[in-house]
Write a structure and sequence with these properties.
With about 190 residues, this protein is α+β, with helices and mostly antiparallel strands. Helices cover about 20% and strands about 25% of the residues. It contains four helices and eight strands, in the order ααβββββββαβα. It has a five-stranded antiparallel sheet with strand order 1-2-3-6-7, sandwiched between helices. A three-stranded antiparallel sheet has the order 4-5-8. It starts with a helix and ends in a 10-residue tail after the last helix. Bound molecules: nickel (II) ion.
Length: about 190
Amino acid sequence: MAAIVPAAAMLGGMTIREILKMGDARLLRTAKAVTAFDTDELHVLVSDMLYTMQSINGAGLAAPQIGVDLQVVIFGSDQINPRYPEAPVVPRTVLVNPVITPMSATEESDWEGCLSVPGLRGMVPRFSHIRYTGFDQYGDAIDRTVDGFHARVVQHECDHLIGTLYPMRIRDFSQFGFTEVLFPGLDTPADD
Ligand code: NI
């Protein structure tokens, strides 16, 4: 961990934050709406979240995962994620006060993992096609209609804002287990 402090200093004080793990009651709260945009406080939070997510190749991160009780999620990377090499690229997005609207009742199931549930993967049903709206950290509106992996990531991250972790969405627990057992050839970090 010694390299982290100088790297953080070089990048303007961004800090790798501790990620809470399942069982921590702070992951079960309903997060509060952000009421002021383009503030120093919000920019520091977003910078820390981006830096924390990048440091562990996460596909997304929600503020409650670092113990911050606010409706802020980040996801995407503008490049292939080494943890999900088969997944399409999702644009790097900061999404505040999100609202998700399913565009149809159609669902699809796929494997998910979570930085708060390290070492495990489960098969999770999600809406295939959604519209999501919200704001970026500057208060500019976001309004996108997406499907597939992009829609899955948004639903997973926004679930963190209502105290829901992906295992709570699993319907078939025969498809829930340790990554190293389910995917023995997959080269993923030990903490997923
Ligand atoms: Ni998660």
